[in-house]
Design goal:
Layout lengths: L3 E5 L3 H13 L3 E5 L2 H11 L5 E4 L19 H12 L5 E5 L4 H4 L8 E5 L5 H21 L1
Parallel strand pairs: 1-2, 1-3, 3-4, 4-5
Helix pairs in contact: 1-5
């Protein structure tokens, strides 16, 4: 079965290069621009998603009533929900955010990597996605 990556980012043009590289790795990629659509997609197809790439700065959508700082921190709130609803799907937070206080919300581990856009061009990100999915598969096979 083809691995499926969900990319949640509202900046389509630059993300196109990432999507192209992921597809070159024979990965299926679904690009979604806002948290509400992403949650609806996962509700219907979470069993098919092998990894999530998440931006921090997203439109607040239904999270407008939470502490998203007008969208500057929407990805943090969405990530917390993803962890509650889909804790076994690896997440790569791909962002250009530099604020250390914002980045502290993400504690890296086997299912979470923080990747700064300037440090992860498309090829390197595609390598990271594949490694994370392989690590999940390896752990599942050991259990």
């Amino acid at each position: 079965m083809q691995k499926h990556v969900l990319m949640i980012d509202d900046d389509n043009q630059p993300m196109k290069y990432y999507v192209d590289y992921l597809r070159r790795r024979s990965l299926k990629v679904t690009m979604i621009e806002n948290p509400d659509e992403a949650l609806n997609f996962l509700k219907m197809q979470h069993d098919e998603v092998s990894a999530i790439i998440l931006d921090i700065m997203l439109p607040p959508g239904s999270y407008g009533h939470k502490a998203t700082s007008a969208g500057l921190r929407t990805g943090i709130v969405l990530y917390n929900d993803l962890q509650t609803l889909y804790p076994d799907i690896p997440v790569i937070v791909l962002t250009s955010v530099r604020n250390p206080k914002t980045l502290e919300a993400f504690k890296e581990g086997p299912l979470l990597r923080l990747a700064r856009k300037r440090d992860y061009p498309p090829r390197e990100l595609s390598d990271l996605v594949v490694r994370m999915m392989e690590n999940v598969s390896d752990r599942a096979n050991k259990n």
